[in-house]
Amino acid sequence: MKKIKPVILILPVFITLLFSSCGFESLKTGPVSKNEASLELSVMTMYAGSDGNATNYKEAVKEWEVKTGYTVKDSSVTSDETFKTRVSMDFLAGAEADVLFYFSGEDAANLVKNNRVVSIDEIRKVYPEYAANMKESLIQPSPVDGMIYSIPVNGYWEGLFVNQKVCEAAGVPVPDENTDWDTFMDTCEKIKNAGFIPIAASLANVPHYWFEFCIYNYGDPENHSTVPRGIYDRAGIAWSKGLSDIKKMYEKGFFPENTLSASDDETMRDFLEGRAAFLLDGSWRVSAIENATSNVDDFIVTFVPGKNDRKTTDIIGGLSSGYYITRKAWEDPNKRDAAVSFVEFMTTDDMVSRFAYVSATALKSGVKLEKDDVSGLVKSAIYMAEHATGVSEAVQDYVPAESRAPIFEKMPDIVKGNKDIDEAIGEVIECLK
Asked: Is it the case that residue 252 has pLDDT exceeding 80?
């Protein structure tokens, strides 16, 4: 079985020095000579679209360009399953970026196997201080060889975002750490009966959050990240029961009427504009919500209600993506210095603090965040991180994108009963062989 240890160590990182002063250190990279100034570095990240750090990324790129004299050819796109396919196709065509911000774990396994990205150890032979500000114990190594290839910026946790005004209008309490799954289902029923959408989610576009937590409800932080080897082993049974719960939620009408065709942006608007009560999403949504509404204190984030051995306060989180330097850039004498300079700039303590906000990092010194004038949403995020009892990384990070397709791409058929759940799980297992 593929198994990882729960990432309990990230919990202190969420809050260490969270409210310390915001004095940022000076950047390591210096200006380049004029004869190098026309060099163009190609970069691809997930900081695009509705990602809460898209603006931070654009501003950081401009800062680096001014500081170094280099220019960036940016091809960043929103993170979804098509993004992963695009990255794979770029590498197959030899058109990969010089620097890539991408997932670690199984999603990058082929890049490592085919020697298309460069390890930290190899980079440090030339640049000894590369990523010296990071705790390597918190960085996910490659499942291929156990080495570290990507330098993380902001990690993640996943939680239940709540539109408190909708809950108030529907006459239901806001869920908290004491809310169990059955109570949450009753709350969703009352919200639906009051004329609101209980859960803003697109099962066609982003089904993976509910997939993750519904499965988690039949496991715990010690075993959630185990990938099934068979339909009837412990993980296989958990997947089957979790998917069955999603199907029940769909049949009860807890998702939007257009959940099988809507985009993520559409369901996000349902949540922000007061038509839906709950949104299951990641830590990156905190800044996105703050940027999208003037009524940010109408929103909080709390724990996803649990059942069985999974406590409500057991969360999903980790550091599952980071900056890679591609082999193509590393072996190009005109690109190597620029690629290292860019990644070092993007992963200094000050820059990581800017991007991470309330999410996890691998910084040795911890995130630095201004104490004053934070929203109720930010305070609730900090509270959740402080009171989490256990953490597991997302199991989907240990299943390649193409192997997830029988479930993720077929979720509409699964919830409508047109696709047998155990058959879909069996197809995933077969893809993994």
From this structure: yes
Can you tell me the distance from the alpha carbon of 13 to that of 319, in angstroms, rounded to the nearest whole number? 11
Domain 23-155+319-368 belongs to what topology?
Answer: D-Maltodextrin-Binding Protein; domain 2 (3.40.190)
Backbone phi, psi, residue 41, to 5°: -105, 125
- In 308-348, which ranges are continuous DSSP H helix? 327-330, 336-346
Fold of 157-315+377-432: D-Maltodextrin-Binding Protein; domain 2 (3.40.190)
Q: Enter the pTM of the model.
A: 0.69
Q: What is the pLDDT of residues 76-117, one digit of tens each?
A: 988 776 888 899 999 999 999 999 999 988 889 999 999 999
Q: Where in the chain is the domain with CATH 3.40.190.10?
A: 23-155+319-368, 157-315+377-432
For residue 372, what pLDDT is reported? 64
Measured between alpha carbons, how far is 207 from 202 in angstroms, rounded to an integer?
6
Q: What angle do helix axes 376-387 and 285-292 make, rounded to 10 degrees?
A: 170
Burial grade of 137 (CB within 10 A; 0-12, 13-18, 19 or more): exposed
Write phi, then psi, for 281 (nearest 5 degrees).
-155, -175
Closest Cα partner for 31 from 55, 3, 5, 66?
A: 66
